[in-house]
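re: that complex we talked abt at group meeting.

here r the seqs, copy pasted straight from the sheet so there may be weird spacing, ignore it
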Amino acid sequence: MREELYINLNPLQRGGVVPAEGRKTAVAYIDGYSTCDYCPGTLHLMKKPPIQDFLKEVAEFLNMDTATLTQGCREAKLIIMRSLTTPGQTILVDSNKHYTTQLAAELAGLEIVEIPNSGYPRFRIDPDGYLEAIRKVKKETGKPPALALLTHVDWLYGNLVDAARVGEICREHDVPFLLNTAYSSGRMSIDGKRVHADFITCSGHKSWATGGGTMGILAMQSEWEKKVLKPSRHHELKPLELLGCTTRGTSALTLMASFPTVKQRVKIWREEVEKARRFSSQIESLGAVRQLGEKPHCHDLLRFETPVLHRIAQKHKRRGYYLYEELRKRKIVGIKPGRTKSLDLSTYQLTKEQLNYVLDSFKDIVDKLSLKN
Amino acid sequence: MTQNQVERTFEALYTLEDLRELWRRTAPFHQLTPEQKSKADMLIQKARNALDQIEREL
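got the structure back, here u go
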């Protein structure tokens, strides 16, 4: 499928669409270890290409003290868990977490205490849930949790949580705070110091306009640098948890080439939110469509329950696959084949004309098939 | 093969990426505004010039 021929609504894809400058870089630096011709011994200190300077800029952009490259956001989370904790310790996570948070904790041998969401239909995470959970862990184990992780914007409902409040609670109780910004940094401004984050993890391919599916950023406050980036006993320039060097090639260079675009686009985040809200209310006006998650919504990731589409599926000869096929005929992709009970989509970086066309297409499908079935 | 030919090869590739960007922004029907049409014309010409130079130097 060529992105140039379709409108792709897949929430996983929108923030990773690479601008022309990034694609040009990918073309030029596709070979093997394309970052490594002038290696000073480790990737994050590289001067040519200027990875070291780029990482300083990224740390500034996130208002953190230092930043380094990782293979992905999930790897960044694992690095923090492994560096700060010992197996058997307890950490806090929100119940809207990405599955990789759980996998990272499992791999690090950690126990998880979840902060529950508010349930259907809003699924909100109350920041004060972290306070209750810290008290609970202290009472049960005699110690505070070893780490608190908050998914800033979750992947299902696109809910944006008040990270500053969670950070404040963690600071008051001396719990290191990891903010997972896979769906926020790179789309919207993040001020790590304002939200009291000890660590910020980012996803290059989800929100920083980078391809390859192997690009993450780990930013931290300086007090943690020695612990997290401690060198190998055998290779003094190689941080152990990074296995020396992480993304040694085209993904890192594409991230750098896309960064000017990312810095500009976070400035118009409000417009993106307005666009998502407008889309949400217009698609709800089809009838029997309901947006789940926070309302008014504060992010471009949207989940809808769609009985109007599911009713058609029950009588349609193609069952649930009709929707995917009807949309594809109209050159719209990104909705999971076979699924009609609910839809996940993102409006990010789509033009007003493209979104109007998507809305008209849904309306057309409902009008046409509700009569037939 | 001269350095110029290699540079013109990249110029053509990069120019086509700019054209590709135009297709992406106007997907799926590519109804170009007058400004977008003239940008497309300019990019095509630029890529063609680069390819002509490569061909002349072969």
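couple things i noticed - Chain A has a mean pLDDT of 96. The interface with chain B takes residues 3-7, 17, 19-20, 23-24, 27-28, 330-332, 351, 354, 357 of chain A (CB under 8 Å).
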